[in-house]
Design brief:
Keywords: Membrane, Transmembrane, Transmembrane helix. There is one protein chain. The chain is built from seven helices and no strands. It has helices at about 1-25, 30-45, 50-55, 60, 65-80, 85-95, 95-110.
């Protein structure tokens, strides 16, 4: 029961942070999404996201902050083994090929075409 409660509280707090970013800081949903991914990446980089996952389980792995955690976690693990090339390949190895290709092709499309906004 305690595991479900901690997952609910941590997942809910992550969602509250996202909602506050949109409501109070007037960030767009895209900026909020990016901020949450970066927060997850920073927390993993300083070693705080894994203990959060151990405490909250799905409350920490389901929100978008977990994607930032996965990117940094894979990059750091592969970087230790293969150097700078491992940093780049680690991102692709840990995250799914579909998500990685979506990031690359979206970036390339933004370089080629002028986004409307």
């Amino acid at each position: 029961m305690a595991m479900y409660l901690s997952a609910f509280i941590v997942g809910g707090l992550i969602c509250v942070i996202g909602q506050l970013l949109m409501d109070k800081a007037k960030l767009t949903p895209g900026h909020t999404l990016t901020a949450l991914v970066v927060i997850g990446a920073i927390l993993d980089g300083v070693g705080l996201y894994e203990p959060l996952i151990d405490f909250a389980g799905a409350g920490a792995t389901v929100p978008i902050t977990s994607f930032g955690n996965s990117l940094v976690h894979g990059a750091m693990a592969e970087g230790e083994q293969n150097g700078i090339v491992g940093v780049i390949t680690g991102i692709f190895e840990v995250t799914s090929a579909g998500i990685s290709s979506a990031i690359i092709f979206s970036f390339l499309a933004a370089l080629i075409f002028k986004p409307k906004g």
